[in-house]
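ok trying again, last paste got cut off:
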Amino acid sequence: MVSHNKRLVAALAAVAAMGMGLAGCGSDTAGTDNGGSSDGGKVTITYMHRLPDSEGMTLVKDIVAKWNKEHPDIQVTATKFDGKASEMIKKLETDVKSGEAPDLAQVGYAELPEVFTKGMLQDVSQYADQYKDHYAAGPFSLAQVGGKTYGLPQDTGPLVYFYNKAEFDKLGITEVPKTESEFIEAAKKAAAAGKYIMSYQPDEAGNMISGLAGASGGWYKVDGDSWVVNTETDGSKATADFYQQLLDAKAVTTNPRWDPSFDASIKNGQLIGTVAAAWEAPLFITSSGGTGAGEWQVTQLGDWFGNAGKTGPDGGSAVAVLKSSKHPKEAMEFLDWFNTQVPDLVSQGLVPAATTEDAKTPSDWSDFFSKQDIMKEFKDANNNMGDFTYMPGFSAVVAKMNETAAKASDGSGKVADVFSEAQTTSVDTLKNLGLSVKE
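nice, full thing came through this time. structure:
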């Protein structure tokens, strides 16, 4: 599925980590038998990634070459994995068991809990604390499990709002509505004119709608050695109510995000506003085909989902230190340097989690988004991210949420069903993984 792969490459999977107290899971000690090598005092670190590395970007090998030139005693070899994230995780699991795993590996925030549960990660809290101030607090916490740190955040995907200001002005909507009721009223006004200021994307429900609902509170926690699951929070109910009102009023588009119909809705001028992850900016420009170039803007989410002005995460990844690494201190030293090479990471289409320098908005992004410094908006969103926690096996929950969301879009179900099905699927998935669930 080419469209789905677009999301995998751009988003590098979705969201989050969690508090966890599971006996016998994970690894809290440095590896002593496997991993990186040394030669007469020179340490060799290996790093596996899934960054795009496309034409016009600063290639990972070139970024690493700068490090190697400046650090002769810590040499790094980077390898790009060209498959899907799930395939890379399977390979890493095998390699950790055989002692052939790299020191460092890119791991999506949503994958981190499962990788930890499989005992593939190394606790590097003692080295990470000195780098904590180099990153936004929300993303830094996504590289943690149960208060221990297993790597450093690389990129992030806070949810924001894209809108065509010129089209809003034509409709007499002088500013983006701040409250749910104001937004619903404006959406109905726009729909009467054949325009839509919000999209309902069934194929993104598991990633986007979970982030919106989770902006006001997480779904998963651990009590003792048991998981506690609640996907039907007040935030979930508010999110369901918001979208259900729009669907009932036929005041929202229902084209799947990665279907050509979504792109068509922008190109024909119908869709003039939507929630999107920060990493979506260059993909959205492509989807638009240039329609509305210079008219679109980015702003923070209003209080539409019971979120009290907070936002949630959708996408992004950390780089984790694997259990078999013999040189976690040196691996973390390189990793912090790499993840703070902000301009180079921006060239890869990422929204860096680092706060060591301001990310500059690429010129083509600026041209499309009204010469706005959208990287500043993304930074503000990063700093305004709510605490949202995920569980091992969350991919199964995402699949069920997407399936259920599609039924709500065609009228055969309700948006609230998305969250009730998430509850059942979460509990079943945890039990299937052999984990205790408190019900």
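cool. The first helix runs from residue 2 to 11. The CA atoms of residues 201 and 257 lie 6 Å apart.
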